[in-house]
Amino acid sequence: MEHNILIIGGNGLVGKTIARILQSRNPDITIFIGGRKGGKTERDLKIDVTDPNSLQIISDKKINLIILSVNDQSDHVLRYAIHHHIDYLDITKPTPDLVKAYAIAGKSDVNSRIVFSSGWMGGIVPGLVNAISKNTQDILEIKLFVYYSVKDLAGESSAHFMAENVSVPFSNYKNDRPVSVRHFLNKETFDFSFGIGKRVAYNFDVPDLYILNKVERVPSVNVKMTYSSKFITWLLGGFQYIRLFDILSLKERRAIFSASGNGDQSVFEIVVKNKIGEKKLSLQSTKGQAELTALSAVLHTEELLRNPHENHVYFSHQLHEPQLLLAQLNAYETIHINTPS
Questions:
Q1: What positions belong to coiled-coil segments (predicted)?
Q2: Which residues have a Cβ under 8 Å from the Cβ of 84 and sit 6 or more positions away?
Q3: Across residues 17-40, what is the average pLDDT?
């Protein structure tokens, strides 16, 4: 079967990385790149997610799978994929947009694979939770700790998301009840692996909060993040405590979060607690968060191409056998995973 894959947002940092990894591992597939400005080759398609009329070219090019790596807030691409029975993988949505899109898909007559993969680092956290836990029904609490390096190469969308949402309350979950919190408050000290050591981490919103509680039915879920710079971590916590973000303009907030280096490691740690005790998984991407997010998207894509999953609405971790996902990540040369007993 011919595989024509379209990456919308393929000219961005993560989109380019997806294209590179996917093509290198699957040289026989045809990859099209969608962007607002189009391009110079027949595989560069002019697509603007804010203009539904621009999507007709997807059918014209006989696209089998759409990978969305730009935030489509109006869900035009999702609706097009559902209506035209095209497989769809979205790695971009912040929690409120994900909840809305999931509801749209759930109410639709779906005749393709619709996959939401907007959790942390391409939606792999729930899959890794399942890899270190025999039964999610026994889990009492999950904590995700994120280490973000200011030297990492980050895309513009990450800065814009934080600038737009830093003052917006969000929910973590305690005993199956949502608890309204704000970014960079409620500090907790955590001892990170890979030589990082003890760091103060603060509230951070990722879609895994929603997915782990509402889909995997884990009663308590908490996510905290720390920056590689202890000063920046402390400063952001102070800004939030005195509510300075509330009075800054969007442009000023974007300036605060727009720093991007030339590349550095990205680390996250999952702590799973049950009645017996706790288990921990630590993951390091030596080439940073863009590489890991793109690799995750590629693994989801390859799973859709390889196996005949039924037409249905999925979260990406639901496509995978957990131990196989863990093994595939561990096999990638720039990914290191520790699972101490």
A1: none
A2: 58, 59
A3: 93
pLDDT at residue number 251: 86
Closest CA to 122 of 311, 264, 308, 302: 302
For residue 17, the tally of other CB atoms under 10 A from its CB is 24
**Closest to 77 in 3D by CA, of 98, 96, 95, 54:** 54
Annotated domain spans of the chain? 4-116, 122-288
Q: Are 294 and 17 in contact (CB under 8 A)?
A: yes
Dihedral Cα 257, 20, 207, 4, nearest 10 deg: 130
CATH class of 4-116: alpha beta
Q: Are 327 and 339 in contact (CB under 8 A)?
A: no
> Residue 75: how many CB atoms within 10 A of its CB?
19
- 265-290 tens-digit pLDDT: 999 999 999 988 999 999 999 999 99
* Segment 229-258, tens digit of pLDDT: 999 899 999 999 999 989 988 888 888 777
- pLDDT above 90: residue 262: no
- The owner of tokens 């990722």 is 206
Tokens 């288990």, residue located:
279
Query: Which residues does 57 contact at the CB level (< 8 Å), separation at least 6?
Result: 45, 46, 47
- Is 275 strand, coil or helix? coil
Kindly state the tokens that stand for 112: 């393709």
Q: Quote the pTM value.
A: 0.94
